[in-house]
Write a structure and sequence with these properties.
The protein is of the alpha/beta class. The chain has a domain of about 240 residues: Type I PLP-dependent aspartate aminotransferase-like (Major domain) (Aspartate Aminotransferase, domain 2). It is built from 13 helices and 17 strands. The strands form four sheets. It has a seven-stranded mixed beta sheet, sandwiched between helices. A four-stranded mixed beta sheet has the order 1-2-3-15. β1 and β2 form a beta hairpin. The radius of gyration is 21 Å and the shape is globular. Bound molecules: pyridoxal-5'-phosphate (PLP). The site of pyridoxal-5'-phosphate (PLP) has 15 residues, from α5.
Length: about 450
């Protein structure tokens, strides 16, 4: 039994107040904005989230990886309040503010660029991807963009075109942006060796898509929505080499992997590969909408004046939160913490895998971990229903879990990195109970 009780359940899940609100939701909110969990938030703190019925959960979803510093970190809240009392908006390209520049300076210090680099800010991850492609096209004067099987890069036109998964993201929503090409992403567990992926890419560049037509390769160092599939470092290094040889730019999508999730500030650091451009978002501002494109200065300077922008490009309140996030990382040692939490959770997942043959794979880096559930240990067919059942059972035990993967059969860890050891234990206890119940 877990030692502490951060989890506190007052009602069955969903509780009566939640049910009443969700009935009203159905009348005014479009069906495609379907709820993943039948929970309505009241307040959150650190790794816990309390619903309107007074039930407190440990949150392993982190608002889909946006809360590496946890819910409502006091330093973030203070920074937001302070900035909100000064001014909320000017549009940085109309009236500038020093906060934008100070944050760019500080973030670029942490980014894996060896030479001069610059940063441009936006709101969501999808905007960062859209703009990264713009920077790449303006610099290379080429149109093509290569992405990978099972990639997820967002839901607006260019990013959705780069996203691989058809259901539910793309079905019936085409036509998509042209000049997007796709090759397999390495996935040893699903029978795609890195060498095969590389061969497919090289062959494409030889026979059907000459490099002189390709602006960029867009890659997640660890696929997020795709199921936390980890790209081998030497494969990422080989992409870098191909880019160097051909003038194609390497755009690294760190939207889900960034800000300490893997135990480094950015996941690409594990491979020692320098990107040309990098997209960041999610945990950058502790839940406030902020994203960015960071890149080599000459590439970032390539579009003509005014070609990059928008009304809300680097909101000052979100930037104040982002600055506080970096303070929290430094003062609370969250990179080491990600490593520690990751080791504990991975250790337990591996034990479960030995006990339950329906856990086909356990993988990840640092605190970016997932288990892949299958219907049969030999055939290894993805078992979405089992993953759904585990997540439901976990919610009933006070742990919020998120699925991932092309087949929705993976369960991923995106817990706040400020989570205490006792809360990790409590969460794992709930998860284990959920696994036992779902497999019974
Ligand atoms: N890129 C990656 C790797 C992501 O995981 C996501 C979102 O999950 C995006 C881009 C899109 O970000 P957003 O949902 O903020 O538009």
């Amino acid at each position: 039994m877990a030692a502490t009780r951060s989890i506190h359940l007052e009602t069955a899940i969903p509780g009566p107040r939640t049910r009443e609100i969700l009935l009203r939701k159905d009348k005014v909110v479009p069906d495609p904005l379907a709820l993943y969990l039948p929970i309505v938030a009241s307040h959150g703190r650190g790794a816990t989230l309390t619903d309107v019925d007074g039930n407190t959960f440990i949150d392993f979803t982190g608002g889909v990886g946006c809360l590496n510093v946890g819910h409502a970190h006091p330093r973030v809240v203070e920074a937001v309040q302070e900035q909100a009392s000064r001014f909320l908006h000017t549009d940085f390209t109309i009236v500038a503010y020093d906060l934008y520049i100070r944050y760019a300076e500080r973030l670029l210090e942490l980014a894996p660029f060896r030479g001069p680099a610059k940063a441009a800010f936006f709101n969501a991850g999808t905007e960062a991807i859209e703009n990264a492609v713009k920077f790449a096209r303006a610099y290379t004067k080429r149109a093509g963009v290569i992405a990978f099987d099972n990639a997820f890069h967002g839901r607006t036109l260019m990013s959705l075109s780069l996203t691989s998964k058809w259901h539910p993201y793309k079905n019936g929503l085409g036509p998509f942006a042209p000049e997007v090409y796709r090759v397999p992403y390495p996935n040893e567990y699903r029978g795609v060796p890195a060498a095969d992926s590389l061969r497919a890419l090289e062959r494409m560049l030889e026979v059907s898509l000459p490099a002189e037509n390709v602006a960029a390769i867009v890659v997640e160092p660890i696929q997020g929505e795709g199921g936390f599939v980890v790209a081998p470092s030497n494969w990422l290094g080989a992409l870098r080499e191909i880019c160097d040889e051909t003038g194609i730019l390497l755009i690294v999508d760190e939207v889900q992997t960034g800000f300490g999730r893997t135990g480094r500030m950015f996941a690409i650091e594990h491979a020692g590969v320098e990107p040309d451009l990098m997209a960041v978002a999610k945990s950058i501002a502790a839940g406030l909408p902020l994203s960015g494109v960071l890149g080599k200065a000459e590439i970032m300077d390539a579009p003509v004046e005014g070609a990059i922008g928008g009304t809300f490009v680097g909101n000052p309140v979100a930037l104040a939160a982002a600055m506080a996030v970096l303070d929290v990382f430094e003062d609370e040692g969250l990179l080491e913490r990600a490593q520690r939490i990751g080791e504990t959770i991975r250790g337990r997942m591996v034990e479960w895998q030995q006990a339950y043959d329906r856990i086909g794979d356990v993988r990840g880096v640092g605190a970016m971990l997932a288990m892949e559930l299958v219907d049969d240990p030999v055939l290894g067919r993805p078992d979405r229903e089992l993953a759904v059942a585990v997540a439901e059972e976990a919610a009933e035990r006070g742990l919020l879990l998120l699925r991932a993967g092309t087949y929705g059969n993976c369960i991923r860890v995106l817990c706040p990195l400020v989570i205490s050891d006792a809360e990790v234990e409590e969460a794992l206890y709930a998860w284990e109970g959920a696994l036992e119940a779902a497999l019974a």
